[in-house]
Write a structure and sequence with these properties.
By secondary structure, the chain is α+β, with helices and mostly antiparallel strands. Helix content is 30%, strand content 25%. The chain has helices at residues 3-16, 47-60, 109-118, 134-140, 171-174, 201-218, 238-244, 273-291; strands spanning 21-25, 37-42, 64-67, 73-75, 80-86, 94-97, 100-104, 121-122, 143-144, 147-148, 153-160, 165-170, 187-195, 197-198, 251-252, 255-257, 265-267, 300-302. The longest helix has 19 residues, at 273-291. The chain is globular. It binds uridine-diphosphate-2(N-acetylglucosaminyl) butyric acid. Uridine-diphosphate-2(N-acetylglucosaminyl) butyric acid is lined by residues 144-145, 218, 227-228, 231-232, 237-240, 243, 261-263, 298.
Length: 310
C-alpha cells in the first residue's frame, strides 16, 4: 500500500471509523459486476464525512474517484489504487417544493421519477429506467427518449473536494451538453433541483410504462451491461453503425456485443474488464475502418490503466 493511501486511511479512520474500508470490492457496485477493488472506500453520509475525505485528499494527494450507481463505468481488473467515494444513505432523499423536486445525489433516478409520478409532476419520465443516481445523472447529463436531465434541472449543489466547501452552481455554468457537463472533476454532486410541470398521474404513468416496455424490447436489460458503450456520433447512431459492421454477437472472452442492441456490451460468466476493453477496442477499430467514424466511449474507464489501452 502506498504511503499516500496509508496516510489518507489514517485521516479518514479518525473521522469515519469503521466505515472506512480497504481492498473494497467495486464489482458489486457496478452494473457490469466486474473489476477489482478500491484501495480505500468510504460512503459519505453527510458533510462531515465529505470534509474528512476532502482533508484526506488535500493532505495526501491520494487519487480519488466519485462513484454513483456504477451504471456507466468499467472498473479495471486490478481495481483502483486510490480512494473511492460513493454517497451513502444520508444523500438519498427527496422533497417537493411546488413544481420543484429537490433530491440528494445518492437518490436513484428511477426512484425520483417515481416520486414525481406520485406527486403528479411530469418531466422525469425519461429517467424511470435509467439505473443511475441523481449525482451521476447530473454529471453525465443522463438522457433518453428525447429528453435529458438538463431539460429539467434548475440548480446543482456540489461539494468541492479540493476546497472543502459546498456551493450551488448555476445551471448555465454547469455546461450541460449531450452526455457531458463542465462540472469540476474534483467535486461531488450532493443535490439537485428539478423543475417539473403538473400533469395527470394516469398520463405520466402511461408514458413511463411505454418507456419501460420499449427498453425491455430493445435493450438487454436482464444481462450485466453498462448501458450504451459509445456516444452517438452527430446525426448517426452507434448501435446502427456497429450492427451494420456485423458485430452483433462478436465476443472476446466472456464479453460480447449484445444481439439485441449493438451498442451494448454484455459481461457474461467469467468476463473480465480486459475482455470488455479488448472488445470495445475491436468494435471501435472495425467501425472506424469501415466508415471512418471514430466512436467515442460513453462508458467511463476506472483504474490505473495504460492510457494506450483506453
Ligand atoms: N439500431 C440498429 N441496430 C442495433 C441497435 C440500434 O440498427 O443493434 C438502430 C435503431 O434501429 C435506431 C437507431 O439505431 O434506428 C437508434 O437506436 P435506439 O433507438 O435504440 O437508440 P440509441 O441511439 O441506440 C439512445 C441512448 C440510450 C437511450 C435510447 C432511448 C445514446 C448513446 N444512447 O440509444 O441511452 O436509452 O436512446 O432514448 O445516446 C445510455 O446512454 O446508456 C442509453 C442506454
Amino acid at each position: 500500500m502506498s504511503d499516500a493511501i496509508a496516510r489518507a486511511e489514517a485521516i479518514l479512520r479518525n473521522r469515519c471509523g469503521e466505515r472506512v474500508r480497504t481492498s473494497f470490492s467495486l464489482a458489486p457496485l457496478t452494473t457490469f459486476r466486474i473489476g477489482g477493488p478500491a484501495a480505500l472506500f468510504v460512503a459519505p453520509d453527510g458533510k462531515q464525512d465529505l470534509l474528512a475525505a476532502s482533508e484526506a485528499i488535500r493532505e495526501t494527494d491520494v487519487p480519488f474517484l466519485v462513484l454513483g450507481k456504477g451504471s456507466n463505468v468499467l472498473v479495471d481488473d486490478a481495481g483502483f489504487s486510490g480512494l473511492v467515494l460513493r454517497l451513502g444513505r444520508g444523500y438519498r432523499w427527496s422533497a417537493r417544493d411546488g413544481e420543484r423536486l429537490m433530491a440528494g445525489g445518492a437518490m436513484p433516478l428511477p426512484a425520483l421519477a417515481g416520486v414525481a409520478l406520485n406527486e403528479a409532476l411530469s418531466g422525469l419520465e425519461f429517467g424511470i429506467a435509467i439505473p443511475g443516481s441523481v449525482g451521476g445523472a447530473i454529471r453525465m447529463n443522463a438522457g433518453a427518449h428525447g429528453s435529458d436531465i438538463a431539460a429539467v434541472v434548475e440548480a446543482v449543489s456540489v461539494f468541492d473536494l479540493s476546497a472543502g466547501t459546498e456551493r450551488t452552481i448555476p445551471v448555465v455554468e454547469a455546461g450541460f451538453r449531450y452526455r457531458n457537463t463542465d462540472l469540476p472533476a474534483d467535486s461531488v454532486v450532493v443535490a439537485a433541483t428539478v423543475r417539473l410541470r403538473p400533469d395527470a398521474v394516469s398520463e405520466i404513468r402511461a408514458r413511463m410504462d411505454e418507456i419501460r416496455e420499449w427498453r425491455r424490447r430493445t435493450q438487454p436489460v436482464a444481462e450485466a451491461n453498462c448501458g450504451s458503450v459509445f456516444k452517438n456520433p452527430p446525426n448517426d447512431s452507434a448501435g446502427r453503425l456497429i450492427d451494420a459492421a456485423g458485430l452483433k454477437g462478436f465476443a472476446v472472452g466472456g464479453a460480447s456485443v449484445s444481439r439485441k442492441h449493438a451498442n451494448f456490451v454484455i459481461a457474461g460468466p467469467g468476463a473480465t474488464a480486459a475482455d470488455v476493453r479488448s472488445l470495445i477496442r475491436h468494435v471501435r477499430e472495425t467501425v472506424a475502418a469501415r466508415t471512418g467514424i471514430r466512436l467515442e466511449p460513453e462508458v467511463y474507464l476506472v483504474g490505473d490503466l495504460d492510457p494506450a489501452s483506453r
